[in-house]
Amino acid sequence: MAKIGDIDLGEHPLILAPMEDVSDPPFRALCKEFGADLMFTEFISTEGLIRDAHKSVQKLDIYEEERPIGIQIFGANIDSMRMSAEIVERANPEILDINYGCPVKKVVNKQAGAGILQNIPKMIELTEAIVKATKLPVTVKTRLGWNEETKHIVEVAERLQDVGIKAISIHGRTRKQMYKGSADWTLIGDVKNNPRMHIPVFGNGDIDSPEKAVEYQNRYGLDGTMIGRAAIGYPWIFREIKHFMKTGKHLPPPTTKERVNAARQHLKTSIDWKGEVLGVLETRRHYGSYFKGFKDIKSYRMKLVTSMIPEELFQVLDEIEARYKDYVI
Question: Domains of the chain, with CATH numbers?
Answer without folding.
Answer: 3-247 (3.20.20.70), 256-323 (1.10.1200)
